[in-house]
Amino acid sequence: MPTAYVSALETMPTVGELVANHTAHVTRTKYEFRW
Q: Lower Cβ count inside 10 Å, N or C end of the chain?
């Protein structure tokens, strides 16, 4: 298995967490602005 492929698989969960955190932050910010 190529190293690049393994690195990509290892990075995916981190990217997923970043996206989830960003989405949660944007959602929270929208609700704060609404008040």
A: C
